[in-house]
Amino acid sequence: MRFFPFAMLFLFINLIGMLPTNAQETAKEQGWNNKWGSDLTVAHNSYDNWSKGGQNNLNLNWYNDMRFVYTQGKSTWRTTNFYTLEYTRINQQEIQKTDDRLDFESMYSFAIKPPVDPYAAFTLKTQLLPGYEYDKEEGENTFQNSAFFDPGYLTQSVGFSHAHEDILNTRMGFSVKETFALKYAKDELDDSTTSVKVEPGLEFVTDYAQTYREIVDVNSKLELFSDLKGYKSIDVLWKNYLAVRLRENIVLQFQFTIWYDQDIDEMRQIKETTTLGLHYAFF
After folding, report:
1. How far apart are CA 274 and CA 156, in angstroms?
2. What pLDDT, in 10s, does the model give residues 103-139?
């Protein structure tokens, strides 16, 4: 299985080579092309003598998505900043933080000859607020298990990319991933006496973002990282976001995330949320 990442690279180059190209696609709009939207959504369930079961709960979610693209000649610089924060309260239990993710990415690419361009990229993933382990029955936090940049993840990568009208961006290349655990996340490291683990490998990232009829936003991003030690050690993060604006500032939001990292859990993690709330577009 150690040749699997190289097979992925070979497949990627051949698939990209079959994509059609034309002069209009290579003539990119110069200057800045930016997008920044933010959603604040709420979900609530209440039960009284309900024979089917269930627990009273209140869920509050903040979703923030920033995308900046600067094009000058053959150079393109793309920066994205995604952040989501979620709190939940069940019955009269303590308010629990159920999501806190900061995902920053910056990539530079240079157009040499369609359909692929060389790129260099940097990513940062962490959380902003302290995280706690909660008692499953009482709902009280028993101890702190995470903090800002504990854990934290950095990657630096170089390779080849393909972009289609700033809607679909795909890249694959050699990457170095650093996992930081200053105090709470030592179990993610091979050696608990250190604070960082360095893993060289290959990455594959594809990011799709488009707005339909000015009322439906669709974002989907798939990230794969392999340390070349076998298919079981491939890290997978697939984030999906769908938002339908029912009115100018009212949005129906759906999020679906699959996360697999053997260093964190041997089983895949899945999160799905559907909420209704407010939307504001800064630009």
Report:
1. 34
2. 999 999 999 877 889 999 999 999 999 999 888 777 7
Q: Comparing C-alpha atoms, which of 192, 149, 196 is closest to residue 176?
A: 196
Spell out the CATH class of 4-281.
mainly beta
Map tokens 């979610």 to a residue: 61
Secondary structure (H, E, C), the chain: CCCHHHHHHHHHHHHHHCCCCCHHHHCCCCEEEEEEEEEEEEEEECCCCCCCCCCCEEEEEEEEEEEEEEEECCEEEEEEEEEEEEEEEECCCCCEEEEEEEEEEEEEEECCECCEEEEEEEEEEECCCCEEEECCCCCCEEEEEEECCECEEEEEEEEEEEEECCCEEEEEEEEEEEEECCCCCHHHCCCCCCCEEEEEEEEEEEEEEEEECCCEEEEEEEEEEECCCCHHHCEEEEEEEEEEEEECCEEEEEEEEEEEECCCEEEEEEEEEEEEEEEEECC
**Amino acid letter, 223:** E
- Residue 267 in this model has a pLDDT that exceeds 80: yes
- Bridge-based pairing of strands 75-90 and 235-247 is unpaired
Residue 155: Cβ within 10 Å count = 21
Contact assessment for residue 118 and residue 110, using Cβ atoms and an 8 Å cutoff: yes
End-to-end CA distance of the chain: 46
Domain-wise residue ranges, the chain: 4-281
Residue linked to tokens 């994205």: 80
Whether 141 has a pLDDT exceeding 80, the answer reads no
Q: Which amino acid is at 67?
A: R
User: What pTM value is reported for the model?
Assistant: 0.86
